[in-house]
């Protein structure tokens, strides 16, 4: 950890720049911190590692997990409340989820939506009801966490909370809702006088004799520079998903798997804060993407290496990914008949590259079972039980919704989905509800704040799409306000 060891303030001969608040990272958490610090009257300097603003957020689908009765929810005909939203999140965010933080986030969710709109972020008041990773067009609301699927539809009244900024002619993975989330926020920050310095590789915190963080040291174009923060430093430079040694140490099941992130998420903010005694939480927790189109998944059955179903196919794909990687040894096959596969291929999809052809096609389930190499009789028993449930109109085992229950006919095929998972890390720095970084003693580290995926936020061992941009922006704002104070 010597490369991130803190630098004593007394050793700084000359400060290259000075601001009231220095923000490290110009993604969703960083820009939100910058806007709020700027509105509080602080002089704000953002240091960004790359050549421009955006971070992982600008390349994402742009979902922000919001609820409690936002204007979009109401226009689209959905009732919701902070309490209902919190009940879902406490169940869905997994073991160890911070119920106090969840309640805090839900109570401020409607106001946060209005803050985004006030910063110029546009949301189209239309609901996309089909299964999918994101709407193929510019609809502003959809289910993104399996809220209407078992078991969550029995925990809380289902309500869609995936709010996605409106964008015309979007290109998934290149220019989508995330861009239209970031651009108005950056424009707002710029109008407030927020300064930005790019190609800055921040490596060390600068600490005064009394333990207060008073700046950062960075490298820019081969030159070492020191940036002074009169009031506070905000760390907002992302997760450790692209730090192989940290992933191997803390989240080894993701090691070697595709990282659903950007390479700048190398954990440096976490390591710098650790070097001054910061506490961590949920470092082993991960979100696991499942690289198959939901239009396919809902129309077939997912089986494991024993030929058994293990998850309701109409739930959130990230939940499927977690159950597949961690509980099924990353082995999954989608069994689907020809008619259902044809329907899926013809459906509107924002991710047509994930609409895969069958790996095997057979005239009978028994032949398919043999082709896959499953234990004799296992797949036949699974399909027979599923078809019986479909004919009866109720999946009493895994509770897949009736609208997707249809007996599997012939010819029948299977898509080999072994190794179809990737993901990103969810753990990070422990923070207060005001985004102060906590020391291992339990006390806040003076002058140090953090937000976004560098922290352990709402998610523990569960996830819903939009949570990262949601709590990153929400607690980024808190970080900016508190740092400016």
Automatic annotation (TrEMBL):
Pfam families xrefs: FAD_binding_2
Segments forming domain FAD-dependent oxidoreductase 2 FAD-binding: 20-461
Entry keyword set: FAD, Flavoprotein, Oxidoreductase
GO molecular function, one term: steroid dehydrogenase activity, acting on the CH-CH group of donors
GO BP: steroid metabolic process
Cofactor(s) in the UniProt record: FAD
Superkingdom of the source species: Bacteria
Keyword Flavoprotein: yes
PANTHER family for this protein: 3-OXOSTEROID 1-DEHYDROGENASE (PTHR43400:SF10), FUMARATE REDUCTASE (PTHR43400)
UniProt protein name: Flavoprotein
Organism: Mycolicibacter sinensis (strain JDM601)
């Amino acid at each position: 950890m010597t490369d991130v060891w803190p630098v004593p303030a007394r050793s700084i001969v000359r400060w290259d720049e000075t601001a009231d608040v220095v923000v490290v990272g110009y993604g969703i958490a960083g820009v939100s911190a910058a806007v709020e610090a700027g509105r509080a009257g602080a002089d704000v300097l953002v240091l960004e590692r790359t050549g421009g603003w955006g971070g992982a957020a600008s390349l994402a689908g742009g979902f922000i997990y919001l609820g409690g009765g936002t204007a979009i929810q109401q226009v689209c005909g959905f009732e919701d409340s902070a309490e209902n939203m919190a009940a879902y999140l406490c169940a869905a965010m997994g073991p160890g989820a911070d119920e106090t933080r969840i309640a805090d986030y839900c109570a401020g969710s409607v106001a946060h939506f209005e803050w985004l709109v006030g910063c110029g972020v546009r949301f189209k008041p239309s609901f996309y009801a089909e299964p999918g990773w994101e709407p193929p067009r510019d609809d502003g609301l959809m289910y993104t966490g399996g809220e209407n699927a078992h078991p969550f539809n029995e925990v809380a009244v289902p309500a869609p909370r995936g709010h996605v900024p409106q964008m015309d002619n979007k290109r998934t993975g290149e220019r989508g809702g995330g861009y239209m989330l970031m651009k108005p926020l950056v424009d707002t920050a710029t109008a407030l006088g927020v300064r930005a310095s790019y190609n800055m590789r921040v490596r060390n915190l600068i600490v005064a004799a009394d333990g207060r963080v008073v700046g950062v040291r960075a490298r820019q174009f081969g030159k070492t520079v020191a940036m002074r923060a009169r009031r506070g430093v905000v760390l907002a430079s992302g997760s450790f998903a692209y730090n192989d040694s940290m992933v191997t140490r803390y989240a080894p099941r993701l090691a070697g798997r595709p990282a659903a992130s950007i390479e700048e998420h190398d954990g440096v903010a976490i390591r710098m804060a650790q070097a001054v005694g910061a506490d961590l939480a949920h470092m082993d927790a991960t979100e696991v993407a499942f690289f198959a189109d939901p239009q396919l998944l809902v129309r077939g059955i997912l089986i494991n290496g024993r030929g058994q179903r293990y998850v309701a196919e109409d739930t959130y794909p990230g939940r499927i990914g977690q159950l597949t990687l961690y509980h099924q040894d990353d082995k999954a096959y989608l069994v689907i008949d020809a008619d259902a596969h044809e329907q899926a291929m013809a459906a509107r999809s924002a991710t047509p590259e994930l609409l895969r052809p069958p790996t095997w096609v057979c005239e009978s389930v028994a032949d398919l079972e043999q082709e896959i190499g499953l234990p004799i009789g296992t797949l036949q028993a699974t399909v027979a039980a599923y078809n019986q449930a479909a004919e009866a109109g109720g999946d009493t085992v895994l509770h897949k919704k009736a609208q997707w229950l249809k007996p599997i006919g012939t010819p029948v095929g299977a898509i080999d989905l072994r190794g179809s998972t990737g993901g990103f890390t969810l753990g990070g720095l422990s923070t207060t509800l005001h985004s102060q970084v906590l020391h291992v003693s339990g006390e806040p580290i003076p002058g140090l704040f953090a937000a976004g995926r560098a922290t352990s936020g709402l998610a523990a061992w569960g996830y819903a799409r939009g949570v990262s941009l949601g709590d990153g922006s929400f607690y980024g704002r808190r970080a900016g306000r508190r740092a400016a104070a």
